[in-house]
Amino acid sequence: MIIKPRVKDFICLTSHPEGCKENVRRQIEYVKSQPKVELGKRVLVLGASTGYGLASRICATYASGASTIGVIFDKPAHGKRTATAGWYNTAAFEEFAKNDGYYAKTINGDAFSQTIKEKTIELIKKDLGKIDMVVYSLAAPRRTTDDGTMYSSVLKTVDEPFTAKTLNLKTNELTEATLPPATPEEVEATIKVMGGEDWADWMHALKDADVLTENACTVAYSYIGSKITYPIYYEGTIGAAKQHLYKTADALRQEGFNAIISVNKALVTQSSSAIPIVPLYVAVMYRVMKDKNVHEGTIEQMYRLWHEYLSQPQPKVDDEHRIRIDDLEMRDDVQNTIFEYWDKVTTENLTQYADVDGYWNDFYNLFGFGFDNVDYDADVNPEVNLDLVE
Ligand SMILES: NC(=O)c1ccc[n+]([C@@H]2O[C@H](COP(=O)([O-])OP(=O)(O)OC[C@H]3O[C@@H](n4cnc5c(N)ncnc54)[C@H](O)[C@@H]3O)[C@@H](O)[C@H]2O)c1
């Protein structure tokens, strides 16, 4: 089958197995080229197939030589449908890791469920005994709790409607988007999905099953971002969920867990593309950070987290006990230039003030497209075997 990108709104409906493999290979090569990092040797990554979770798994394996168990929620190819990018990424990662002599096993299923928690604990007991580190990197649109209730997260403001410039991803034109405020129920549902409840459930389940080492640490990811995106992110429904995540980290620490939040930089991932206004902010931010030579991608961010923070006995944290690897994005000179460009940018001067090509390049790369050393006219088999834990 010849696989071409089929983009609909903020998602690509197809993924390319060879391109996804190339994406994973490049991330592995980057980490291999960096100094080793002394950190957890048995690592559980929840949400391990794309974005920050995939980069975390690659760092754990290739920077610290860890055995990893990944939990993902992905689909294999079916008829004319390709597999999801996360499926191909995970198959490629496992192939590289195993060829390089590392243990890597993956569970595909709903991480929010008790069944998947139990399955994971069983696998840890059987293969690794205990875990030293848990990475919580789920980004999900919905969550079904064990009593069968389904909660859907929304990307809205919490009080007033908010209007701002946005990039029409179909036409590459600037338009205005108005986001309505969420109802209290929608705020609560978003907290249920993207807040810290499930992170705490995982930590309690792992502790109760006695599969955590004494000094085990756990990290969950967050975003704060620029004043430009505050109404939709920091002060919006997703921000409310992140506040809950911070409270969860505090509560876990009070219970004796070594729990930390890392606030990461905004990047193009399948989740961030879905947030209105954010893609334009990201494109302007890419322009500014690339011009200032301080741009990083997911793998550079995660390697810095491993190398400069998590491996330190007392990692540097902010007043709210969070690691800030969004430090370069939040630098005053970077933010001030972003504000200036944000005011000036229009459809006509878009490429001057926003790195739209960089945005699209990262977007296509997420699905395995746009790599110059992959032959996209070649016939490829979309059915790629992933040796999942049953
Ligand atoms: N992308 C950004 O700009 C950005 C910036 C800072 C922080 N973050 C945070 O990083 C974390 C990860 O986000 P991302 O952007 O890497 O997302 P992503 O969409 O690339 O990855 C999400 C992962 O979660 C998995 N997943 C989703 N639902 C699942 C379920 N029910 N069960 C098991 N696995 C499931 C997916 O398979 C995937 O592996 C989130 O907490 C996000 O808020 C993202």
TrEMBL record:
Binding site for substrate: 223
Pathway: Lipid metabolism; fatty acid biosynthesis
The keyword Repeat belongs to this UniProt entry's keyword annotation: no
Alphabetized InterPro entries for the sequence: Eno_Rdtase_FAD-bd_dom (IPR024906), Enoyl-CoA_Rdtase_cat_dom (IPR024910), FabV-like_NADH_b (IPR050048), Trans-2-enoyl-CoA_reductase (IPR010758)
Gene3D superfamilies: NAD(P)-binding Rossmann-like Domain (3.40.50.720)
Catalytic residues as annotated in Swiss-Prot or TrEMBL: 233 (proton donor)
Keywords assigned by UniProt, alphabetized: Fatty acid biosynthesis, Fatty acid metabolism, Lipid biosynthesis, Lipid metabolism, NAD, Oxidoreductase
Domain Trans-2-enoyl-CoA reductase-like NAD(P)H binding: 2-78
Residue numbers binding NAD(+): 47-52, 110-111, 138-139, 242, 267-269
This protein's record includes keyword NAD: yes
Highest taxon in the source lineage: Bacteria
Catalysed conversion reaction: a 2,3-saturated acyl-CoA + NAD(+) = a (2E)-enoyl-CoA + NADH + H(+)
Enzyme Commission number, as recorded: 1.3.1.44
Boundaries of every Enoyl reductase FAD binding domain copy: 317-380
Domain Trans-2-enoyl-CoA reductase catalytic: 81-310
Matching Pfam families: Eno-Rase_FAD_bd, Eno-Rase_NADH_b, Enoyl_reductase
Transmembrane segments: none
Subunit structure, as described in the record: Monomer.
Function: Involved in the fatty acid synthesis (FAS II). Catalyzes the reduction of a carbon-carbon double bond in an enoyl moiety that is covalently linked to a coenzyme A (CoA).
Family: Belongs to the TER reductase family.
Protein known as: Trans-2-enoyl-CoA reductase [NADH]
Organism: Megamonas funiformis YIT 11815
